[in-house]
Amino acid sequence: MQFADTKWKIIQASRKVFSEKGFHNTKMEDIADEAGVGKGTIYDYFSSKKELFETMIKEMAMGFKALIQENISEDMDFDEKLKALARVKFEIIKNHKDIENLVFKNFSNFDESLVGWLEKIRNEMLEYFEGVMQEGIDSGRIKDINPKYATLMYIGGLHFLSHYICHVEDADYEKEKDSALDTFLSIMFKGLEKRCL
Which residues are registered as beta bridge partners of 142? Predict the structure, then answer.
């Protein structure tokens, strides 16, 4: 348990330091100080700064995937699943925008193996929500459209909107988030729904 706790403490500390200083300007000493451990202790778990950085990115990505899975259950109907995805997306961007910024700024330095791994996780989530769109089509809730492109448009719109709202002052965040979600979902459901002629 001590091994796992120390490793996780180092990963969490690295996230904070990498976010503040960037990958290239971060030293292992900085992470050790933030984690409250000796520099040598970090090397008991990670052979290099790059390995620690890539492990941190993977841990955060798996955390995002788990958060989505925890909030969306199979007994939800189509509307509930899309609403849950929207709420989770806003939560992820609000609380973890530093990770997205890190990935964006350092993507060109990633090994092919990490890029491939991240793409695999992304594709798994896209395939899952493509299946949700297909459920909506099969049930007659939405029109018969290409579920892949409907998914990409839905997630793309959510991504842009959640990034915009995350910069709103904290005092106004909940109000603006609720207004943005209501507007977005209203437009999306109206566009997707199957109309009776």
Answer: 193
Q: What CATH homologous superfamily does 72-196 map to?
A: Tetracycline Repressor, domain 2 (1.10.357.10)
The CATH number, out of the four listed (2.60.210.10, 1.10.10.60, 3.90.1150.10, 1.10.8.60), of the domain defined by the range 1-60: 1.10.10.60
**pLDDT, tens digit (0-9, with 9 covering 90-100), for 18-59:** 988 888 899 999 999 999 999 999 999 999 999 999 899 899
Q: Per-residue confidence at 83, pLDDT binned at 50, 70, 90?
A: very high
To the question of pTM greater than 0.85 for the whole model, the response is no
Hey, where are the domains in the chain?
Answer: 1-60, 72-196
- The DSSP line for 54-97 is HHHHHHHHHHHHHHHHHH--TTS-HHHHHHHHHHHHHHHHHHHH
Tokens 């992304």 locate to: 122
Phi and psi torsions of 142, nearest 5°? -125, 165
